[in-house]
Each structure stands twice: as C-alpha cells, then as structure tokens.
C-alpha cells in the first residue's frame, strides 16, 4: 500500500495531552480513521442531496401498502372474533352500512371499541397492553381502515349464518 504523508496542526492543549499517551496510541491510525469517518459522513450527506426521491417514494408506498394490509387484517380478525357478541340488529346495521358503501369516519373506531366493551368480550378477543395502545393511537385514516376490516370480519360470519336464520323464518 502506497501512503501519502499529511501534516496536521492541533491546538497546544491537545498536543500536551497527546504527549502523555502517544506511546499507547497509533496517531496515524487514529487520524486515518477520523478522516475516513468524516469523509464518509460528507459523502453520505452529498448523496442524500442528490438521492433519487422516486426510490424513497416507491419504498414508502410499499411500506404504507403493507401497513394498511396489516391494519385491515387485524380489524378483520377482531371482527370475526367479536361477531359472537353482536345482536341480530347490530348485524343488520353493519350489513346496511356495508351495502351503502358509507365512508367510515374515525369516530366509528371509538364507537366500535365502545360496542365491544359493552359486550364484555372474552379475554382472548381483547387487544392487550402494547397492541391496544398501538391500535388506539392510529391516525384517522388507519382507524377507518381498521374499522373497515372489522366490518369485513363481522360480515364474514354474518354471511355464513344469515341464510340459516332466514330458513328459520320460513318454517
């Protein structure tokens, strides 16, 4: 390896401190490492300025798509579990909302939690600790996605059983 010499200047106080430990320190190695880190940092900053924003946008879109799918699936699973606690009228109301393609507002999220709390769902239906905090701290858009997933879960159960209920009415 061919090396180039470089002279550096350091303040007097640093020079005096160096004198007491210079036998234990590879001064050239320390300076090389510090320069390498400083150059790498500067190169990274320069690259960040010229970074292709489209790559970032594409990656973030993919992350958002995956997050939305996860939130909706969590809502759907809770909907399937909580369907066992719903009344006939509640199933009908949820079905009407779904058929009407009503835009689900963020306050629907709070209403859904109140409804589930009023039914005192089984322990295995409830979100616990960190999971509950994560769900309730979702932004409004994600809360709406969660409720849509919940409704899909509820309607999955409802669609499986409603024909049998209609058969009972015909008897």
Structure description:
The protein has helices at 12-21, 27-50, 53-82, 88-99, 107-118, 129-136, 140-170. It has 171 residues and is mostly helical. It has two domains: 12-50; 54-170, no CATH class. The radius of gyration is 31 Å and the shape is rod-shaped.
List keywords for this structure.
mainly alpha, 2 domains, 171 residues
Helix coverage percent? over 70%
Beginning-to-end CA distance, first to last residue: 94 Å
Taken from the alpha-carbon principal axes, the silhouette is rod-shaped
Instruction: List low-pLDDT spans.
Output: 121-125
Radius of gyration from the alpha-carbon trace, in angstroms:
31 Å
Please state the structural category: mainly alpha
Order of helices and strands: HHHHHHH
Per DSSP, what share of the residues sits in E-state strands of 2 or more residues?
under 5%
**What is the residue-mean pLDDT, rounded to a whole number?**
80
Number of domain modules:
2
Number of strands: 0
Main sheet record:
none
Q: How large is the count of helical segments?
A: 7
Explain briefly what this protein structure is.
This protein is mainly alpha-helical and 171 residues long.
Fold topology:
Layout: H1 12-21, H2 27-50, H3 53-82, H4 88-99, H5 107-118, H6 129-136, H7 140-170
């Amino acid at each position: 390896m061919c090396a180039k010499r470089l002279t550096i200047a350091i303040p007097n106080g640093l020079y005096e401190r160096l004198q007491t430990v210079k036998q234990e320190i590879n001064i050239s190695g320390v300076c090389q490492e510090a320069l390498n880190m400083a150059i790498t940092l500067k190169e990274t900053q320069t690259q960040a300025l010229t970074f292709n924003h489209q790559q970032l946008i594409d990656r973030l879109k993919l992350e958002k798509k995956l997050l939305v799918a996860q939130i909706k699936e969590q809502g759907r699973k809770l909907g399937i579990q909580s369907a066992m606690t719903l009344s006939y009228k509640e199933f009908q109301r949820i079905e009407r909302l779904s058929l009407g393609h009503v835009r689900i507002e963020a306050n629907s999220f709070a209403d859904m939690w109140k409804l589930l709390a009023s039914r005192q769902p089984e322990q295995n239906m409830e979100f616990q600790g960190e999971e509950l905090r994560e769900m309730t701290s979702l932004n409004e858009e994600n809360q709406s996605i969660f409720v849509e997933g919940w409704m899909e879960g509820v309607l999955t159960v409802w669609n499986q059983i409603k024909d049998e209920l209609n058969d009972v009415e015909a008897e």
